[in-house]
Amino acid sequence: MAILQAQDFSERSPLYPRHVGARLGQLGNAAVVAGYGDEDESAQLQRCALIDQSNLARVGFRGSDAAEYLRARGYRLPERPNQAQPQDDGCLVARLSQSEYLLLGSLRDAGSRIQQEEAGWQLGDSANYLLPRQDSHAWLLLTGEQASEVMAKLCGVDLRAEAFPPGSVAQTSAARINVIVINAPQGELPCLQILCDRASASYFWDALLDAMAEFDGRAAGIDALL
Amino acid sequence: MKIMPCPLNGPRNISEFTYGGELKQMPDPQACSDDEWADYVFNCDNHAGVVTEWWLHNASSYWFLAERHTVSDEIIRTFDPKELFDRRVDFAQPAARQEVVA
Questions:
Q1: Min Cα separation A170/chain B (Å)
Q2: Under a CB-based contact definition with an 8 Å cutoff, are residues B53 and B70 in contact?
Q3: ipTM
């Protein structure tokens, strides 16, 4: 099998130069870190790991008719702002305000459903406006039992499970940049989905890895998630 | 750190917010004088006491209103602007300016 290189793809994660030593896999039209080395990373994920999901599709919608539009497209929506609702196919819908929704793609379909939402939207008479998020944000996944302790070093908001249960969303500052943090466990695996400014991704990646070091946290790939 | 209660996001460090100036009543842009408009755009009351101010929560780009005592810096109340801005403001098309011929 030919070895994949991020440079072979036109869509690249802002973090691709940081994935030194990673084994890449294909995700839709982009490359994604499948793993580091040949070992199974499940135990690492359960302890403390950081995964770059920036090449997975995401998009936002805003407006007084956005909720109705998304319901008609088959999404179940969170009842209140700053809550997230997992969908049956693995997608995640986070409600960021009274009238704004953020849709995060699933690895199961390589993000194709959310990609189609972005491609298929058209400006019409209804107040439902597209918010492209692919090139504005980077998307990281912090996994493991130590995730909230890692975030406690960087962020002023209490992200422990008692105060921030699954389905919670926090729009706040971490390591001094704006982030959206979503508690969205995958089965038994504790997971914090983190979106940050794409241009600051390299800085934030290092800040997270530095905070994770005391918990033996490492960068990992998506293979152990699937 | 000082904590501000955001109406959308809950209590947050003050460093997550940006000050947006005093809440002022907009004069009718068609009917007011240039002085009234300049006063609205540029000048502040700088009142010592309880004032209502615009604040932005940076991480969620959410603008809201806060009642704050400017002497003690105590935040009395924060609330969604919908409490005051409950209807759409439509601006009339300004009359076409006549071209000045030199």
A1: 7
A2: no
A3: 0.91
